Amino acid sequence: MEFDTIAAIATPMGEGGIAIVRVSGPEAIAVVDKLYRGRKKLSTVDSHTIHYGHLVDPQTGERIEEVLVTVMRAPRTYTREDVVEVNCHGGLVSVRRVLNYILKYGARLAEPGEFTKRAFLNGRIDLSQAEAVIDLIRAKTDRAMKNAMKQVEGRLSKLIKRLRQELIETLAHIEVTIDYPEHDVEEVTQQFLREKCEQVKKEIEHLLATAEQGKILREGLKTAIIGRPNVGKSSLLNALAHENRAIVTDIPGTTRDVLEEYVNVRGVPLQLIDTAGIRETEDVVERIGVERSRQVLKEADLILLVLNIAEPFTEEDQALLDLVKDMKTILIVNKTDLEPKLDTDQLKERYPHLPLIKMSIKEEKGLDELEQAIADLYFKGDIEAGDMTYVSNSRHIALLNEAKQSIEDALAALEMGLPVDVVQIDIRKAWEKLGEIIGDNVSESLIDQLFSQFCLGK
Ligand code: GDP
Ligand code: ZN
Hints:
Mg(2+) binds at residues 234, 255. Belongs to the TRAFAC class TrmE-Era-EngA-EngB-Septin-like GTPase superfamily. TrmE GTPase family. It comes from Caldalkalibacillus thermarum (strain TA2.A1). Keywords: Coiled coil, Cytoplasm, GTP-binding, Hydrolase, Magnesium, Metal-binding, Nucleotide-binding, Potassium, tRNA processing. The protein has 458 residues and is of the alpha/beta class. It has three domains: 6-126, Gyrase A, domain 2 (2-Layer Sandwich); 134-210 and 391-439, Up-down Bundle (Four Helix Bundle (Hemerythrin (Met), subunit A)), CATH 1.20.120.430; 219-383, 3-Layer(aba) Sandwich (Rossmann fold), CATH 3.40.50.300. Helix content is 48%, strand content 16%. The strands form two sheets. A seven-stranded mixed beta sheet has the order 3-4-5-6-2-1-7. Strand 11, helix 10 and strand 12 form a beta-alpha-beta unit. Helix 6 packs antiparallel against helix 7 (183-219).
């Protein structure tokens, strides 16, 4: 495939003393050569070498900027095209000036993500790696960054490729059976197919299980704070937000009764959501709020259910507990600075599987224990392992689920004793769905949509 030559500022705007303009494409070296004055013409230098010099206006001879120019020839480059990187140590104004000259002398301004798109289209990286670059750009915490790095290295791709190989072998086996349909071959085949399908299904399920964590890492763990009015929900949200660095600020904020805050608790990014009390009501406006709370609950990864130790356990508390008993929930008994009217021992007995934290937000007690409990719930054992592949992308998760469904269909068909060519269709579909994760069988528009998410210069 032949492309034109593109250029963009590749370093974050307004950060650091050095800025880089990246140029990629067949004319990259020629374009910069028109502006560059140094010991040698760039067209004559070795690949992957750095050169000191100046950029000058070819018409007036005026010096534009003192530069270091890196020349990298195809194919050992990020885009697999000729790439030139111009390092200028001026600020924003001078880097823009350099970019403008490069654009004036033959390059086109790159669209967001276009460098990475080319890396993908030129076969340098596969789609899941490209998406991991998007994640890298957006990574909000160190952990998310590590996760994204791993994906760049292609762990997920390797795994998916292996699964697809298994499925291809299975399909090949079916072909043989269809060509030689003797009875006993059929018998063996059924057994073989079932085992293969069970195996692939298990691996997909494992990936999906880690996906739960991947999702957390990427967007923050959706954490709903619920409880009756006045138990201290807002106080808890404020305490957590105050103690921990807020991660994101440009998230739509307050609604009538749902307040959101992004915080980083011991490496776990949380999206805290303070909900209105969830109760039956006649008031329409309030009911909408309550509806929203129920919705929040449904989507939540973690529930913090707050109770007030200074008041006896109420029917409402019970109703809330019933509502969340099957979700990942931490019970918080607040206001321990007051006279206790709530039997926490009894609560522990009845809900032995739920972590229970006693707090006095007013006296700043118990917050450490709560933070530890949150970190434990998500990080104990799993993340420390360091060699897991995390799926951190909702498109991947959806495709994995579809692939899993197809495998389940295949297994059901086998169970019913349907002919193998029916099974074949399902297995093929699973193979295609997995292929979409790494960029096989993707339509042009999907590619465009994905790459338009990139920042400029990447
Ligand atoms: P929400 O309605 O559940 O959001 O509760 P708020 O966070 O608005 O708190 C209700 C009241 O309880 C406020 O007056 C808080 O100052 C108070 N409060 C919160 N935490 C504590 C605590 O640990 N001890 C005491 N004594 N009061 C608290
Ligand atoms: Zn509140």
